[in-house]
Design goal:
Keywords: Cell projection, Cilium, Flagellum, Membrane, Transmembrane, Transmembrane helix. The chain is α+β, with helices and mostly antiparallel strands and about 300 residues long. Helix content is about 40%, strand content about 10%.
Amino acid sequence: MSGERPIIIIRRKKAAHGHHGGAWKIAFADFMTAMMAFFLVMWILATSSKETRAAVGEYFSTPLLVAMAGGDKSSASDSAIPGGGDDPSHVEGAKARIDFRERTRTSDEQARLKNLEKRIESAINADPVLRELRAQIRMDLTPEGLRIQLVDTEQRPMFEVGSARVAPYMRSLLQTIAPLLNELPNSIQIVGHTDSRPYPGGAAGYGNWELSSERANASRRELVTAGLALDKLLRVAGMADRIPFDGVGPEDPMNRRIAVIVLDKRTAAAIMQQSSFALDPDEAAETVPATPPPAAEPTLKPE
């Protein structure tokens, strides 16, 4: 019919909501995995021994390229252009890392040296007399090993003035540490040092070289008397005033000191290697002179 109104159909399009997707689920899963790994590592470290943690730290301190190269080789440098320091086969950074690795020691040996330091500390603190000397006893770990330094003060010198005669409290200290040094298989080095004040006789006469050597040898005798095994002694030397104590002037009394060094295996092997070219024993017997007679009493220098 013409009078009928047309039927109009309105179709409305529904607006589709954006799909959130699952990216957030992946990110959350990655986060949970990382947290689980982190807590697992923390749990393992908490239940592991000091030696194990030290070994892990030593592993991560070794440069990757050095480990892959199997040692300290020129291929350990990560630069194609040589240079950086005295060694042209390494850049400065690679050379520094290799030098650091050469100064490290095994974690077991490091732990033994630290334990020895603690035992010496305990022995000193347990003795009222030695406890008064604590300020004159300096212990630290060096690239050579555990260094035990016995230093002078004006009020309490370790030796009698200008001589190698050991003071009574110095003798007690050496007698206390001698049995503890026997507990480790490491070799021992004893080094004597003096201040820079010269003797009246000049460089040609009795001087700081002789004094430092005789004081180191006197310390050796005290340690041996107290029970130190003879086969542990590797070197006894006098350095005169060539190596001042850190942070003091050349005439400071702290320069007058004895250093007893418990050498690590690497340092001891290097010292032994220096004498690998020594003469045949028969030739040495012919060339080495007899022990000279004791020197006359030296003129005492003011200390």
